[in-house]
């Protein structure tokens, strides 16, 4: 492990018990590091375990084994009881979900949403406008409730709310998957700018290799709960070594794309 790592995950493992006394190992010995201001992509097909890893990082899922460290300090696998400790933990890692609508209070305007987060964490409430400006939301959106915002605007609001507590790490689980391509590009550009301005580290969970290639420095490829390949994004996605990574790339339509390549790649697994 590198000594300058902000986020360290070491041997994260999670097994779920299924009906009929069977078990499903959603993640097995997942290990990686992430530097301050860095960006890591976690990719794989549905059921690969990438979302389980994301939820373990945030604390929504408790690992059966393994350790998570933030700036060298062990992150407790379970949420602490005391309010102060819970808030301190929340400021370490924040998460943005695929559908922000279900995580936004429908009664609150965008401004109220940000103000509530600032107040809860003892932050300066005068930052509301600056945070909304940072994600490209103006006065009209500031006074709107979630149902009055577009999908892209709601995603911007969710990002602003997460940034309100000055997190060290922002985990984004398929955060642009439900958006139109043009809106995806806007959100990805926004994330790049925020990372540059604030130094927040990003963990980007996605099945979309084009998205991951655009916003990450390092990538982790998962299959059936295990990491099959990892390294610099450009290297892994342009010269993959593992057959599964080759399959993922062969399955992406593009110029001169031949679906037969994906069939052959699947057969080679």
SSE blueprint and pairings:
Layout: E1 5-18, E2 22-35, E3 39-43, H1 50-58, E4 65-70, E5 73-74, H2 83-92, E6 93-96, H3 110-120, H4 128-134, H5 139-142, H6 151-163, E7 169-173, H7 181-198, E8 201-206, H8 209-215, E9 218-223, E10 226-232, H9 233-238, H10 243-250, H11 259-267
Parallel strand pairs: 3-8, 3-9, 6-7, 7-8
Antiparallel strand pairs: 1-2, 1-4, 4-5, 9-10
Helix pairs in contact: 3-4, 3-6, 10-11
Task: Please name the defining characteristics of this protein.
269 residues; alpha/beta; Rossmann fold; four-stranded antiparallel β-sheet
Overall description:
There is one protein chain. The protein has 269 residues and is an alpha/beta fold. The protein folds into two domains: 5-238, Rossmann fold; 239-269, no CATH class. Helix content is 38%, strand content 26%. It has eleven helices and ten strands. The strands form two sheets. A six-stranded mixed sheet has the order 6-7-8-3-9-10, with helices on both faces. The radius of gyration is 19 Å and the shape is globular. The relative contact order is 0.16.
């Amino acid at each position: 492990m590198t000594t300058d790592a902000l986020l360290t995950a070491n041997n994260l493992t999670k097994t779920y018990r299924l009906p009929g006394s069977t078990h499903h190992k959603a993640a097995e010995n997942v290990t990686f590091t992430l530097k301050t201001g860095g960006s890591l992509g976690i990719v794989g097909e549905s059921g690969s375990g990438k979302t389980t890893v994301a939820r373990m990082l945030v604390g929504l899922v408790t690992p059966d084994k393994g350790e998570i460290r933030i700036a060298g300090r062990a992150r407790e696998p379970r949420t602490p009881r005391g309010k102060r400790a819970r808030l301190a933990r929340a400021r370490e890692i924040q998460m943005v979900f695929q559908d922000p609508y279900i995580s936004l209070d429908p009664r609150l305007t965008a401004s109220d949403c940000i103000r509530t987060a600032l107040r809860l964490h003892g932050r300066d409430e005068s930052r509301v406008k600056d945070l909304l400006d940072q994600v490209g939301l103006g006065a009209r959106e500031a006074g709107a409730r979630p149902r009055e915002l577009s999908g892209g605007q709601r995603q911007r609001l969710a990002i602003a709310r997460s940034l309100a507590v000055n997190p060290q790490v922002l985990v984004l689980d398929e955060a642009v998957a439900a958006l139109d391509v043009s809106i995806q590009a806007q959100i990805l550009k926004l994330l790049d700018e925020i990372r540059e301005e604030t130094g927040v580290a990003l963990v980007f969970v996605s099945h979309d290799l084009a998205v991951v290639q655009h916003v990450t420095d390092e990538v982790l490829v998962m299959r059936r709960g295990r990491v099959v390949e990892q390294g610099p994004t450009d290297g892994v996605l342009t010269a993959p070594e593992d057959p599964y990574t080759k399959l993922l790339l062969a399955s992406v339509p593009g110029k001169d794309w031949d679906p037969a390549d994906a069939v052959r790649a699947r057969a080679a697994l």
